[in-house]
Amino acid sequence: MLADFRDRLAEDDRADRLLDLALARLKEAGLVRERTTQRTDSTHVLAAVRDLTRLELITEAVRAALEEVAGTSPHLLDELVDEDWGLRYGRPVRLGKNPTKPKTRILATGNDAVRLLEHLYRHGTDHTA
Questions:
Q1: Closest to 82 in 3D by CA, of 115, 127, 118
Q2: Residue ranges of the domains in the chain?
Q3: What's the pLDDT at 29?
Q4: Distances (CA, A) of 71 to 56, 77, 116
Q5: Res. 25: pLDDT tops 80
Q6: Alpha carbons 45 and 38: distance in angstroms, whole number
Q7: Distance (Å, rounded) from C-alpha 117 to C-alpha 96?
Q8: Which tens digit of pLDDT belongs to each residue from 92-118?
């Protein structure tokens, strides 16, 4: 089905006409200026995506570790987990387009991970693992 659409779009310069029509509408709406150079630097975009990916991965790793401990030895979390931890790790991470302070959240989650590991090392029953 998509191949048929692509073939029809390629006939008789339809793709160029469609692009011209889209550009004309964008100009009418004031979204694109005529005869200007459009520039973009993707460096900041890539950095933001990398930060968000890290934040999601780190948060999900801590959440998974907490779920595992809660399933096997929930008493170990009594002194550690509070309401703030419940808000951060109580459900799977779903970041919006613009999460607030991602770098601060990455550091806070990393600190939580260290606290969790240290707590489990001190209070866990098996130190040989």
A1: 115
A2: 1-39, 42-129
A3: 74
A4: 22, 11, 15
A5: no
A6: 16
A7: 28
A8: 777 666 666 777 888 888 899 999 999
| pLDDT tens per residue, range 61-75 | 999 999 999 998 889
Give the 3-state secondary structure of the chain: CHHHHHHHHHHHHHHHHHHHHHHHHHHHCCCCCCCCCCCCCCHHHHHHHHHHHHHHHHHHHHHHHHHHHHHHCHHHHCCCCCHHHHHHHCCCCCCCCCCCCHHHHHHHHHHHHHHHHHHHHHHCCCCCC
Nearest to 114, CA basis, from 67, 69, 80, 68: 80
What is the identity of the amino acid at 76? L
pLDDT in the model for residue 102 = 73
Average pLDDT over residues 22-40: 71
User: Would you call 66 exposed, middle or buried from its count of C-beta atoms within 10 A (0-12, 13-18, 19+)?
Assistant: buried
